[in-house]
Design a protein that fits this description.
254 residues, alpha/beta, Protein-Tyrosine Phosphatase, Chain A, five-stranded mixed β-sheet, 12 helices
């Protein structure tokens, strides 16, 4: 199956099925989509998504972004507002402590998001909705504006939780650079002159390997292990993690 779905009116829309896990399973197809802006979906695109089984749309954008570029609505899926920003600020302090002068813009921002109380609350809701997406032939789409940063963090958290290797997680993240190589859409649509400047700068900054590794570094530093982070920060204990793996992975790749 195709990983990049070139649907009209969607930005950076991608299938997360097919990735192998360390447990010898594979992420199921037709369960998880990651995307950027979906405010301009056409009738043809909606028909595709209906057939795909879309039931849940999780919107990580700010309230202002959601007002200015409202998601296309439909009767076959429900949209859940789940803004990652504004952060409370405690994540900035924690990220600063462990970086001690080594500065990578995206890496620092990403660390702040996963360590911040509000950022954690946003991804906690995301994981909770993923647990509700447990019916056959139903799927969940999560997105922000560019489908790179807030969505990228959501993707790395769920892929890591499901047991996907760090190298594959990084490759999935870096696919965004390919999507935007020759595309000016991001300049025209995603930069809100009155919006959050951190978000605007992130949208225009290419993804890099260090950004992903810095997230795992921050989580391990403060939580000891990724599993402990899932439990303490996102309320995903061993039972819920097993449930997620049951919903989203299979031993049959087809």
């Amino acid at each position: 199956m195709k990983r990049i779905l070139n649907l009209e009116g969607a930005i950076n829309l991608r299938e997360l099925g097919g990735y192998p896990t360390k447990d010898g399973t594979t992420i199921k197809y037709n369960k998880l989509l990651r995307s950027g802006d979906i405010s301009n979906l056409t009738g043809k695109s909606l028909a595709y998504l209906k057939k795909y089984g879309l039931k849940y749309v999780v919107d990580f954008r700010s309230n202002d972004e959601q007002r200015n570029w409202a998601d296309t609505t439909s009767d076959f899926y429900k949209i859940y507002s789940d803004p990652v920003y504004p952060l409370k600020g405690n994540g900035d302090k924690l990220a600063g402590i462990i970086n001690q002068g080594s500065y990578n813009y995206l890496g620092m921002i990403y660390q702040s998001v996963v360590l911040d109380a509000h950022g954690q609350q946003a991804y906690k809701l995301f994981f909770d909705l993923m647990l509700h997406n447990d019916k056959p032939d139903q799927s969940l789409l999560f997105h922000c504006a560019a489908g790179k940063d807030r969505t990228g963090i959501g993707a790395l958290l769920i892929l890591k939780a499901l047991g996907v290797d760090d190298e594959i997680i990084t490759k999935d993240y870096l696919l965004t650079n390919l999507m935007y190589e020759n595309d000016q859409t991001i300049e025209d649509i995603l930069n809100d002159k009155d919006g959050n400047q951190d978000v605007n700068q992130m949208n225009m900054t290419k993804g890099d390997l260090e950004s992903i590794t810095s997230v795992f570094k921050a989580i391990e530093h403060y939580y000891g292990s990724f599993e402990n982070y899932l439990d303490k920060a996102l309320d995903i204990d061993a039972d819920k993690l097993a449930q997620l793996k049951s919903i989203y992975t299979t031993r049959d790749a087809k």
